[in-house]
Amino acid sequence: MVASAWAHAGTVSEAATAYQQHCAACHGADRLGGMGPALLPQSLERLKPDALRDVLRQGRPATQMPGFAGQLPETTLDQIANWLRTAPAQAPHWEVADIRASRVVYHAPGSLPDRPAFQADPSNLFLVVESGTHHLSVLDGDRLAPIHRFQTRFALHGGPKFSRDGRYVYVASRDGWISKYDLWNLTLVAEIRAGLNTRNVAVSDDGKWVLAGNTLPQTMVLLRADDLSLERVYPVTGANGKASRVSAVYDAAPRSSFIVALRDIPEVWEIPYATLEPRVIALDDVLDDFFFDQPYRHILGASRNGAGQVIDLDAGRKVADLALSGMPHLGSGITWRRDGRDVMASPNLRQGVLTVIDMQTWQTVATIATNGPGFFLRSHESTPYAWADAMMSPRRDTLQVIDKQTLKVVGSVTPSPGRTAAHVEFTRDGRFALVSLMEDDGAIVVYDAATLREIKRIPMDKPVGKYNVFNKTTRSSGTSH
Ligand code: DHE
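# heme D complex -> structure
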């Protein structure tokens, strides 16, 4: 062995030993997580190298994570940070028995009252994901005031998914935990860890099933919606025998099926509620980002290099190409009616544009220049405007307001200069627009949707997304589903 390889081996074993001494009690001897989150390369993908070193040195405020600066030498902390980015010697696995053993039932089905425990209109509640110290807040959408706050698992991602009556909500953490809350009783009902790294979750419109899509392991996990018990694990392997990570799972209510987008193989899967057996649709290209038309007949998809295509799910094939550039974020697209035709608009993660597409001809109707690349786009049936952020750009503090008829920018709001503002959701009646000020001492900033005047601020801990029960359960065309 050459000298550098000896040195590397020594470093690895020192880091591993330090991990077992100082970290394993909370994060698990196998790094799969415990009281603290999993520390696998996939779990740390989104944390910049400096941010990881800072957490090791200074800890995480308002959590059990202590800082090790002064307690461990700087070199050891750097070694641990590097070592955590490498795959464990034993490939992590998460089998049926692990999933089953992880399940916790806090309230058995049928054991809680069937009526809301509060005065607020249950259909105009908002759920806000606060990513700072990992909480969910429940807002009364009429009084625009919080009524409850829950601790959640580490790093929720993706939209919460509601049962049709709005009573239950299902959320997924990046660490693979699926949690079910009863919003009428304001309590956690059950939890299960479906994977080690999870993309998102979908709930069947008939209220029976919850489907989680994983990147680690490469599986989909079907749960019973009532108590989150495990029904089935689907290994995700393509016709060519190659395994794939899941990009996302969606509930296609009008088709009574789930649709599964895959990350590494050119296939889309449809899983009808009736059979629960996947129907595989072969594609020319892998899709990374997707949008469904309202009937869920078509998928508008884009690969990471920006190539766009339209898939007809009934025919099971591509029916059109889309003229897209940059990195369109079709998943955040919305639709509305303009001059008697349905149009779809999508933000772009790389370019300061919104692309507007005719849903009949699949041609681009307009390209609207914005302040910069953005993540989310939102509207509501009762407002003439769509709201777009520019959170991937230096103008991340400003949202622009676009007239859905003229396709012109007609206004803007800057809740706090220099501080990131993004993700809008409207009240049930579309009168107010709630914007996230995504900072540690952030807020939900409420605007009058007609005058763009600020109405109030509700302090929150790094709020990311917010979700209105009525808009979600009625599948408003101005929001995500
Ligand atoms: Fe998301 C939804 C993918 C990074 C906040 N994001 C989704 C969905 C997908 C997705 C497929 C739809 C799932 C659903 O709602 O069920 N997101 C991705 C990525 O591939 C990407 C770019 C990289 C990654 O590591 O996953 C990514 N997402 C982010 C962020 O950095 C954001 C801004 C902060 C965060 O918390 O991670 C972020 N994503 C969100 C939010 C939604 C979301 C708030 C739900 C939007 C909604 O309104 O429904």
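# post-check
Confidence is low (pLDDT under 50) at residues 1-7.
The pocket of heme D is lined by residues 46, 131, 157-159, 200, 247-248, 331, 375, 423, 464-465, 480 (CB under 6 Å).
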